[in-house]
User: Which sequence fits this backbone?
């Protein structure tokens, strides 16, 4: 009797483990027609921490079928040979690449512009680019290492031309961050924030600071995230400066996102499989123009 | 009579002031136009060489990207054999560019800009027509620093190596020219 009870318990435990529910409790609505993607930043170390986060990222897809990934820069640290790409990108994310998932990369300060020619980063040969994975949602990948007047002009034109409800910008250097090492990039903020406000950008994703941070909504209700701890970590680097709605600097992490209608649901998961943040950003309607 | 004299004095003074203000600006404009022409000449040469095995295209195999970049760099280096520091950053344009950069490094904003640039300390030989070392990071250049400088054609960039400014070909991965001590 006792052994039968144990057997049932083991079967139940195996089922739970198999579905990943014990390790990673999903908080996202997981609706059938929503847009699902994952966000990783500062990944390219090729070390055990990158693999640990990659493992959770891959496991999470058993429950939450995200369709593509966004990379926030520092995609390969310390070199760009074939071996470097293999060890710091192709191997850790092999199951996702094999499943046909696309990775969309932005350039970090440890990346060279040559990465734009690496097909698996889907940059189309450009240092900055835009893509629309679904009607109504458009992404703008920027090169924050070199924000020259030409790029700003391009961004303004693309933002103005986009009829998408959701406008999501992603790039390496954060406009808002409580990082003690880097923190907010004020010069970049001076240039980009007015464009984001003018053209109703909803969400901004950045890396560079090696932790996770959800910033309190800023001007225009724009929601900023820092997801820079997907392979590197600056333990204890988050300052208490009042910017953070939620921060996590004691472990590595990635973020999963689901856009369903006017809602941007997010769940941030650590390398230990714990949900360190989750919630929803409601899209604010663009002000009516005359 | 007195009124006419006052008018004449004012006119002469104003003319002098305008001429005085315009003279260096006109000279600067000419020198900057010459700088832009030199950069454009390099750009056109690079684009002419960027064909066949040197044409940069997208690949799944990073080794092919490296090979194309190397072929392009070899061609540019051969075509620019004997290139010297100052060929593009001429002695005439150097003080103008330094002057243009000065406001971007003043005050607290300037200190932020210096800090951003100093985040990376790449070890790069300050030599012309040499590859930028593969394992060295490129410095981030703050947007308000870039705003001070003349526009560059596609895939030619301003980057800093410590306090020195370099012209960098991001397609061939070459240092095109060096402006020493650009950051005050």
Assistant:
């Amino acid at each position: 009797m006792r052994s039968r009870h144990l057997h049932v318990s083991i079967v139940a435990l195996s089922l739970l483990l198999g579905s990943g529910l014990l390790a990673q409790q999903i908080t996202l609505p997981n609706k059938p027609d929503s847009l699902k993607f994952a966000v990783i930043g500062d990944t390219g170390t090729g070390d055990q921490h990158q693999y640990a986060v990659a493992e959770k990222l891959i496991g999470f897809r058993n429950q939450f079928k995200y369709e593509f990934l966004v990379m926030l820069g520092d995609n390969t640290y310390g070199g760009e040979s074939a071996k470097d790409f293999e060890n710091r990108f192709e191997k850790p994310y092999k199951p996702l690449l094999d499943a046909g998932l696309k990775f969309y990369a932005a350039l970090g300060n440890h990346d060279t512009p040559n990465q734009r020619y690496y097909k698996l980063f889907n940059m189309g040969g450009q240092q900055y680019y835009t893509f629309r994975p679904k009607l109504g949602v458009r992404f703008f990948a920027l090169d924050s290492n070199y924000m020259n007047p030409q790029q700003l002009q391009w961004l303004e034109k693309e933002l103005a031309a986009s009829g998408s409800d959701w406008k999501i910008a992603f790039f390496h250097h954060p406009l808002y961050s409580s990082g003690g090492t880097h923190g907010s990039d004020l010069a970049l903020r001076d240039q980009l924030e007015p464009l984001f406000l003018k053209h109703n950008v909803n969400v901004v994703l950045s890396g560079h600071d090696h932790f996770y941070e959800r910033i309190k909504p800023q001007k225009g209700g724009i929601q900023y995230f820092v997801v820079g701890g997907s392979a590197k970590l600056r333990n204890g680097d988050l300052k208490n400066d009042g910017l953070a709605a939620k921060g996590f600097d004691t472990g590595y992490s990635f973020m999963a996102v689901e856009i369903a209608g006017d809602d941007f649901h997010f769940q941030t998961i650590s390398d230990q499989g714990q949900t360190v943040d989750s919630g929803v950003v409601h899209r604010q309607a663009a002000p009516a123009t005359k | 009579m007195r009124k006419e004299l006052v008018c004449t004095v004012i006119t002469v003074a104003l003319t002098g002031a305008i001429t005085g203000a315009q003279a260096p600006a006109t000279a600067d404009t000419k020198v900057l136009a010459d700088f832009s022409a030199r950069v454009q000449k390099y750009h056109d040469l690079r684009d002419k060489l960027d064909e066949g095995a040197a044409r940069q295209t997208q690949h799944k195999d990073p080794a092919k990207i490296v090979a194309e970049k190397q072929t392009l760099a070899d061609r540019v280096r051969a075509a620019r054999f004997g290139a010297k520091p100052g060929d593009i950053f001429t002695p005439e344009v150097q003080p103008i560019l330094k002057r243009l950069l000065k406001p971007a490094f003043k005050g607290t904003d300037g200190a932020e800009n210096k800090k951003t640039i100093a985040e990376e300390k790449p070890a790069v030989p300050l030599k012309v027509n040499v590859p930028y070392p593969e394992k060295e990071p490129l410095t981030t250049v703050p947007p308000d620093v870039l705003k001070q400088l003349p526009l560059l054609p596609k895939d030619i960039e301003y980057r800093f190596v410590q306090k020195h400014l370099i012209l960098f070909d991001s397609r061939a991965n070459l240092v095109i020219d060096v402006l020493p001590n650009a950051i005050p």
Q: What stands out?
A: Helices of chain B lie at 2-49, 62-79, 93-101, 107-118, 143-146.
